[in-house]
Amino acid sequence: MVAIFALLILAALGWWWTGPSSDELVVYPATCANDRPILPLSLVVRRSQSNEKGFEKYDADRANCEIRPLNPSVYKINETRGEVYYKSLDQVQRLVDCAIFSRTEWTCSYPDGSAKVVIIDGLRAIHADEVSGPGGVHFSLRRWQWWAVKLYWGTDRPSGAWLIPEQHEYY
Asked: What number of other Cβ atoms are within 10 A of residue 166's Cβ?
C-alpha cells in the first residue's frame, strides 16, 4: 500500500515537473522588481568595457535581483505543420514563419512582424534590441524556479542567482 502511494506521488510530481503535454510549452517569465537587468552572459560581456567588469556585473545582477514572477505563456506547437499558437488576451493567436526543431527549440515571428519569439532550451531567448525597449527586460525561469518564487513572493521578495537559469541570446 505504501509503495503504491509513493508511486502515485512520484507520477504526479513527474507530470508537474514536465508540464501538461508533449505538444505544449509553458514559458515562465519574470522580471526584477528592483530593475536589475538579467541578461545572457555574452550580452553583458559585450556591453561592458572589459570582460572582468562584465562578469562582475553579471554576477551582481543575478545575485541581487528581487524576482517578480509574471503570468506564464502557453505555446501550442504543431511540429508536423510547422505552426505555433499562443493565447493572448483570451484569443488564440498564430505565430508565423516558424522553424521548429523540437518542443523546446524553435523560432517564430508575430504576425504583425513586430518581433520574433525564439525559444532555446525551453526558455525565451533575449535579443540585444529588446534590452533598450520599453517595459524592462523579462527573463525566463524554469518551472520549479517560477513556482518557488511564486510561493515565496507572498512572504518576501526572493532573490539569488540559484533561482535564475542561464539566459540565452539570439541574433
From this structure: 10
pLDDT by residue (tens digit) across 99-150? 999 999 999 999 898 889 999 999 999 988 877 655 568 999 999 999 999 9
- The 8-class DSSP code of residue 156 comes to S
One DSSP character per residue, 30-52 reads: EEETT------HHHHHHHSSSHH
Please report which confidence band the pLDDT of residue 6 belongs to, taking 50, 70 and 90 as the band edges.
very low
Backbone angles phi, psi at 50, to 5 degrees: -145, 155
Cβ contacts of residue 70 below 8 Å, gap of 6+? 29, 30, 31, 138
3-class secondary-structure state, position 171 = coil
Determine which helix (DSSP H) or strand (DSSP E) holds 9, and give its type and residue range: helix 2-18
Phi, psi for residue 26 in degrees, rounded to 5: -105, 120
Count how many residues are written for the chain.
171
Domain boundaries, the chain: 21-163
Exposed, middle or buried by CB within 10 Å (0-12, 13-18, 19+), for 110?
middle
pTM: 0.81
Coil, strand, or helix at residue 5? helix
